[in-house]
Design brief:
Blueprint (H helix, E strand, L loop, with lengths): L2 H18 L5 H8 L4 H28 L1 H21 L4 H29 L2 H29 L6 H20 L27 H30 L3 H26 L5 H19 L5 H29 L4 H29 L3 H29 L3
Helix pairs in contact: 1-5, 1-6, 1-7, 3-4, 3-5, 3-12, 4-5, 4-7, 5-12, 6-9, 6-11, 8-11, 8-12, 8-13, 9-11, 10-11, 10-13
Length: 389
């Protein structure tokens, strides 16, 4: 494996740890601050909203000046946002400020990291490399809550200090190891007109971006409500939630780092995406049957197997299909990811307040319905290819 891909993997794991690490800890912090529990959903959403608005700008900027400087700014700023959250002491205003800063700088890192991998890989190797990218993002999503839950047994601030230190060490490591991937001759000139984030949202590609939104929307919705659901089922603790995400995270890593990396071939992505959506839907329904931490871990692992098949394959198809710059394309992809993380907690949280099973039932229906998006993409792509476009 190219060591540059390895550095990018560490960056992405760090960034998405930041999204997940707060999930089992935040309910306790909100209780300590005396605020209502809806702040959990809002705080998760405001982080992603900030990333949504800024990711395409970071991506377009990286098309002009190169990936490396934007990545460095993003990782360092992200470390500082974690430090501030750890120092907030349960102050609601400081927690919101820290999450907004985290969203700003995560947008820089995420959009540029995927574009960096697209820069240094060939079309033949891209699916496998995007499998590693997807594995890294999935590890962050899944192990973030695991780390947050397990470290919170020492102190609620410990997970954030640990994440701040990890991000800063990642910054120092990347400063020494990471080289620029976008040579000056391939960059957009400064006088070139700004390219809208939506320039890549056209033709068959638009359906892949919507699919990217769906897979993140479903995952974020489940993550944001899982702790409250398991508390209702068997009075789960933050440590129990940590165990659930740890076990399912290991399963997800094996799928993305093992199966996808070894067996995914160009052209196989649609088959894997269909399988992933069906398995994810089954996982949603099984979670409703949770009785204790072990059954919840098994059922969550089924969901994660499905979700782990999706991201690398969708990301690979996007990078193969786009006619726009990789920075803008992956900036938009990151924005759709952020939209999913905005809408997922808010909608799933609202549904949960109505009836605790609703987020999971609707999540299963949406997962199966998303197969139609893939079918429409494939049909439109075939039509364009037949027309010689």
């Amino acid at each position: 494996m190219d060591k540059r891909v390895g550095v990018i993997m560490v960056m992405l794991i760090t960034i998405f740890l930041g999204f997940g690490i707060i999930i089992p800890v935040l309910p306790e912090l909100i209780v300590q601050s005396g605020a209502e529990r809806f702040h959990l959903y809002v705080m998760l959403a405001v982080y992603s909203a900030t990333s949504f608005f800024l990711s395409p700008l970071w991506g377009a900027w990286s098309d002009r000046i190169g990936r490396r400087p934007v990545l460095m700014i993003g990782v360092l700023g992200y470390s500082l946002s974690f430090l501030l959250f750890g120092l907030s002491g349960g102050n609601l205003v400081l927690m919101y400020i820290a999450r907004i800063l985290g969203g700003i700088f995560s947008g820089a890192t995420t959009s540029c990291a995927v574009a960096y991998v697209a820069d240094i890989t060939t079309p033949e190797n891209r699916t496998k490399s995007m499998g590693l990218v997807g594995m890294s993002i999935g590890l962050g999503f899944i192990f973030g809550p695991a780390i947050g839950g397990l470290l919170s047994s020492y102190h609620l601030a410990v997970p954030f200090y640990a994440a701040a230190a990890l991000a800063f060490l990642n910054f120092l490591f990347a400063m020494v190891i990471l080289k620029e991937s976008l040579t000056p001759d391939k960059r957009q000139p400064k006088e070139a007109p700004r390219v809208s984030r939506w320039s890549a949202f056209q033709g068959p590609l638009a359906y892949l971006f919507i699919l990217m939104f769906v897979l993140t929307f479903t995952l974020a919705g489940l993550e944001s409500t899982l702790q409250y659901f398991q508390i209702d089922r068997y009075e789960a603790t933050p440590q129990d939630i940590g165990v659930i995400f740890l076990i399912s995270g290991i399963v997800g890593a094996l799928v993305q780092g093992g199966f996808i990396r070894r067996y995914a071939k160009p052209g196989k992505e649609p088959l894997l995406i269909r399988a992933g959506l069906v398995i994810q839907a089954i996982g949603f329904l099984l979670v409703l049957l949770s009785k204790d931490v072990w059954t919840a871990s098994i059922y969550m692992s089924v969901f994660v197997i499905g979700n782990s098949l999706l991201r690398p394959c969708v990301t690979s198809l996007i990078t193969q299909t786009t006619k726009a710059g990789q920075g803008v394309t992956n900036g938009l992809s990151s924005s759709m990811d952020s939209l999913g993380r905005i809408a997922g907690p808010l909608i799933a949280g609202g549904l949960f307040e109505l009836q605790s099973a609703l987020p999971y039932l609707i999540g299963a229906v949406i997962s199966l319905g998303a197969i139609l998006l893939l079918n429409v993409f494939l049909a439109k792509r075939r039509s364009r290819e037949a027309a010689g476009m």
